[in-house]
TrEMBL record, chain A:
Name of the protein in its database record: Peroxiredoxin family protein
Residues that span the membrane, as ranges: none
InterPro entries: DsrE2-like, DsrEFH-like
Organism, scientific name: Desulfotomaculum nigrificans (strain DSM 14880 / VKM B-2319 / CO-1-SRB)
TrEMBL record, chain B:
Domain UPF0033 span(s) in chain numbering: 6-30
InterPro entries for this protein: TusA-like, TusA-like_sf
Organism: Desulfotomaculum nigrificans (strain DSM 14880 / VKM B-2319 / CO-1-SRB)
Family: Belongs to the sulfur carrier protein TusA family.
Pfam families given in the database record: TusA
Protein name: SirA-like domain-containing protein
Length: 155, 74
């Protein structure tokens, strides 16, 4: 049975929870679709700067938001990134997979990633600034998948 | 009837079931998987996993924090 997850948050802990659930579901033999929208799109950004034509506001968004999984902060006690560093350190000691690695596992397991094109437009993200292998679509595509799924989460 | 070994010691959730699934996909019906895990949630998780994937838990034992389960693919 299919599962879908809307990744709305761009917080390290919440994106991580999304991938843990996605990977768990895929490992139980389920088909999984993750729909990345608004802040969740930050997890899909390439870490490097990609030259693109953008308006001033779009450029501002680009500068102000984290570039990819390794730059995300935690939702509580982030303290300008210190909390995220501490959290990553503890997770490493306890051998919790990093978000980067969870994401690679998800791809290996065939989890489908959809980037919300409306959010991309609002935030000024161009397709070439996001990681490869994504589908670009809107809410109807998500709902089409959700109709066939028995678990639909909004994180 | 083949027997597969999986060492998932030290892996945190969902690592053990991801490893288990990777081996399960290579298995034929009737094959068994012997998996060793240190993540305590696995003891309960593996039953939910087995139910979903039509597998049978033949045995489960724990020694010094290492859980050893034998799983058969039906």
């Amino acid at each position: 049975m299919k599962k879908t997850i809307i990744v709305f948050s761009g917080d390290l802990d919440k994106v991580m929870a999304s991938f843990i659930i996605a990977n768990g579901a895929a490992a139980m033999g389920d088909e999984v679709t993750m729909f990345f929208t608004f802040w969740g799109l930050n997890a899909l950004r390439k870490p490097e700067r990609i030259p693109t034509k953008k308006s001033f506001m779009e450029k501002m968004f680009g500068w102000m938001m984290p570039k990819g999984v390794n730059k995300l902060g935690i939702s509580k006690m982030n303290f300008g990134g210190l909390g995220a560093v501490m959290m990553k350190k503890i997770m490493q000691q306890k051998q919790v997979e990093s978000l980067q690695s969870l994401m690679e596992t998800a791809r290996m397991l065939g989890v489908k990633f959809i980037a919300c094109t409306m959010s991309m437009d609002v935030m000024g993200f161009k397709p070439e600034e996001l990681i490869d292998g994504l589908e670009f679509a809107g809410v109807a595509s998500y709902l089409g998948e959700a109709d066939q799924a028995n678990v639909n989460l909004f994180i | 009837m083949a027997e597969y070994q999986v060492n998932a010691r030290g892996l945190q959730c969902p690592g053990p079931i991801v490893q288990l699934f990777g081996t399960y996909k290579k298995c034929n019906s009737g094959d068994t998987i012997v998996i060793e895990v240190t993540e305590q949630g696995f003891k309960k998780d593996v039953y939910a996993w087995a139910k979903k994937t039509n597998c049978e838990i033949l045995s489960m034992e724990e020694q010094d924090g290492v859980i050893k389960a034998v799983i058969k693919k039906n």
